[in-house]
């Protein structure tokens, strides 16, 4: 019997409050309203941004269903939906593309005005589609993928090639695209250049892959955890260093290593101190530094403006600069054409019910990306 138009009862990982484990609960998922899509989730990656909600480093309303890096199949659509239909394989998008706001209309823009980066936790009509034990459960960044079914707005979904393996291309929904695009699209790394990447998690490794694809001749990976060096070298880093190995500031270490010629730096940690280090590490006159890691909310950053006065460029980067609905299907096509290898980023695959185990792998530094299978 078709579930279209009916409330679906399913399992979801609910965060009832900050700093607590996920609770696997039976929830009710309402049918999609006009211009909305209900999706059956097939696979979802565990991203550090989800942990930011747990740790209250990112705004969200509780109880909440997080998760934002996934692949699924359209179960049903609301009135007026034209770009997807039931049965389509899709990637939910935490960064919408309405096509109408200034950012969407500008060729260089991608942060749609309809984005929920401030933790509103509701869809366009101001309500949610989730309830659990009679209580309202909030959405996260337009997606909420740690659930067997979710509802998103049509502007937050991209139809992809049906041949795409869900447990791999889910990474294109956030981590891979963010890092790869930071180098290729936001930083615009040039052939023969020297790059330094601060932070060698899944997104940092994707930055390295982007730098390599762009033709950088020297790619220096930087992380406190030397266990990450081997994987960084496999995906394209030419060398790796730990800031703990020298008493000097990392910017001085890099200057000595490269003859003061670092063209591009990428901060993929999300710490204020590392952002300043990355800025100071690119060339004082023509260097470009890209902030990729999500910064902690409710905190201000202080820096010496002389770092910019001499000519450096400091850029931010959300979702790698990609226009989500336009570019995600193209990236999936590029993956199927073997232009990049997502297998290198996946270290663990777990059943959805073991989500807390997946986060423990993240905290212990054992995983790059853990994929949850539904």
Automatic annotation (TrEMBL):
Keyword Zinc: yes
Cofactor: Zn(2+)
Any GO molecular function: zinc ion binding
Domain Alcohol dehydrogenase-like C-terminal: 202-336
EC code(s) of this entry: 1.1.1.1, 1.1.1.105, 1.1.1.66
Enzyme class: oxidoreductase
Localization per Swiss-Prot or TrEMBL: Cytoplasm
CDD domains: alcohol_DH_class_I_II_IV (cd08299)
UniProt keyword terms in alphabetical order: Cytoplasm, Metal-binding, NAD, Oxidoreductase, Zinc
GO cellular component: cytosol; plasma membrane
The reaction(s) this protein catalyses: 16-hydroxyhexadecanoate + NAD(+) = 16-oxohexadecanoate + NADH + H(+); (E)-hex-2-en-1-ol + NAD(+) = (E)-hex-2-enal + NADH + H(+); 12-hydroxydodecanoate + NAD(+) = 12-oxododecanoate + NADH + H(+); all-trans-4-oxoretinol + NAD(+) = all-trans-4-oxoretinal + NADH + H(+)
InterPro entries the UniProt entry points to: ADH-like_C, ADH-like_N, ADH_Zn_CS, GroES-like_sf, NAD(P)-bd_dom_sf
Gene Ontology BP terms: ethanol catabolic process; retinoic acid metabolic process; retinol metabolic process
UniProt superkingdom: Eukaryota
Function noted in UniProt: Catalyzes the NAD-dependent oxidation of all-trans-retinol, alcohol, aldehyde and omega-hydroxy fatty acids and their derivatives. Oxidizes preferentially all trans-retinol, all-trans-4-hydroxyretinol, 9-cis-retinol, 2-hexenol, and long chain omega-hydroxy fatty acids such as juniperic acid. In vitro can also catalyze the NADH-dependent reduction of all-trans-retinal and aldehydes and their derivatives. Reduces preferentially all trans-retinal, all-trans-4-oxoretinal and hexanal. Catalyzes in the oxidative direction with higher efficiency.
Record text on subunit structure and interactions: Homodimer.
Protein name, entry field: All-trans-retinol dehydrogenase [NAD(+)] ADH7
């Amino acid at each position: 019997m078709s579930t279209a138009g009916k409330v679906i009862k399913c399992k979801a990982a609910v965060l009832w409050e900050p700093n607590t484990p996920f609770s696997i609960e039976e929830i009710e998922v309402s049918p999609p309203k006009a211009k909305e899509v209900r999706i059956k989730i097939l696979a979802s990656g565990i991203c550090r941004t989800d942990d930011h909600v747990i740790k209250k480093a990112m705004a969200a309303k509780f109880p909440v269903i997080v998760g934002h890096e996934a692949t699924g199949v359209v179960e049903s659509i609301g009135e007026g939906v034209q770009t997807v239909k039931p049965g389509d394989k899709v990637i939910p998008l935490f960064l919408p593309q309405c096509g109408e706001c200034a950012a969407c209309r500008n060729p260089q823009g991608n942060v749609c005005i309809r984005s929920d980066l401030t933790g509103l936790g509701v869809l366009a009509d101001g309500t949610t589609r989730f309830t659990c034990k009679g209580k309202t459960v909030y959405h996260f960044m337009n997606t909420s993928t740690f659930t067997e079914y979710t509802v998103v707005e049509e502007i937050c979904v991209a139809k992809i090639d049906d041949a795409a393996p869900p447990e791999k291309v889910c990474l294109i929904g956030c981590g891979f695209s963010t890092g790869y695009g930071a180098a290729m699209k936001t930083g615009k790394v040039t052939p023969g250049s020297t790059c330094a990447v601060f932070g060698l998690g899944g997104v940092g490794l994707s930055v390295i892959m982007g730098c390599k694809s762009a033709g950088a001749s020297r790619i220096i990976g930087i992380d406190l955890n030397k266990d990450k060096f081997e994987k960084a070298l496999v995906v394209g880093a030419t060398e790796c260093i730990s800031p703990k190995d020298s008493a000097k500031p990392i910017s001085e270490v890099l200057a000595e290593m490269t003859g003061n010629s670092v063209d591009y730096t990428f901060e993929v940690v999300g710490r204020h101190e590392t952002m300043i280090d990355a800025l100071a590490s690119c060339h004082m006159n023509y260097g470009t530094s890209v902030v990729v890691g999500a910064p902690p909310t409710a905190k201000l950053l202080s820096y010496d403006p002389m770092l910019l006065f001499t000519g450096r460029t400091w850029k931010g980067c959300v979702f790698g600069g990609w226009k989500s609905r336009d570019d995600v299907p193209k990236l999936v096509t590029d993956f199927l054409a073997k232009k990049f290898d997502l297998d290198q980023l996946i270290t663990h695959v777990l059943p959805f019910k073991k989500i807390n185990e997946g986060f423990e792998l993240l905290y212990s530094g054992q995983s790059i990306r853990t994929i949850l299978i539904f």
